[in-house]
Write a structure and sequence with these properties.
This protein has about 160 residues and is mainly alpha-helical. It has one domain (about 1-160). Helices cover about 65% and strands about 0% of the residues. The protein is built from 7 helices and no strands. The relative contact order is 0.14. The mean pLDDT is about 95. This is HD domain-containing protein. Pfam families: DUF5662 (PF18907).
Length: about 160
């Protein structure tokens, strides 16, 4: 489980980094800004209080994606996973939950968020993340202007990705 977590998380961070580099110049973002943010992307998962929970969660999703039955061993592991996710979402600027209000996210936060969502879509061979966002955006309470900017960012990312 630990080795799978390390490999999957490393690969995910590499995808996010590549995705972020595609957005150079978007919204005035420099290579340095993008690289600096990519370096710290998801690093909190490698330390407690996130590490143990994310090892379990990553294994859960692996089993789910392979249609292998899996349950956490007990309620304390479920709680640990929930607490790890809560800490991660509230401690990393690429998650709306880390802001007092999601509309406070700046261009760099949104580019990293879109790069993250896109990396997950790439890992699952689902194409663009736009469907995921259309189905889930209401849980974050973005205003229309911010939501329009997020969709614009996704479309720009998809366009740049298609040129590769």
């Amino acid at each position: 489980m630990i080795e799978f977590f390390k490999q999957r998380t490393k690969y995910h961070i590499e995808l996010v980094t590549r995705n972020m580099m595609l957005m150079q110049g978007y919204g005035g973002l420099s290579v340095e800004e993008l690289k600096n943010r990519a370096i710290i992307h998801d690093q909190s998962k490698y330390e407690e209080p996130e590490l143990s929970g994310y090892i379990q969660l990553t294994w859960f999703h692996r089993c789910k994606n392979l249609n292998i039955p899996f349950q956490y061993a007990n309620k304390s592991i479920e709680t640990m996973v929930r607490d790890a996710c809560h800490h991660h979402l509230h401690s990393n600027r690429h998650h709306p939950e880390s802001h007092n209000h999601p509309n406070e996210m700046n261009v760099l936060d949104i580019v990293e968020m879109v790069s993250d969502w896109s990396a997950i879509s790439q890992e699952l061979n689902q194409g663009s993340c736009i469907t995921y966002v259309k189905e889930n955006h209401s849980k974050w309470s973005f205003n229309n202007e911010k939501l329009d900017f997020i969709f614009e960012t996704i479309k720009e990312f998809d366009k740049r990705l298609s040129r590769l």
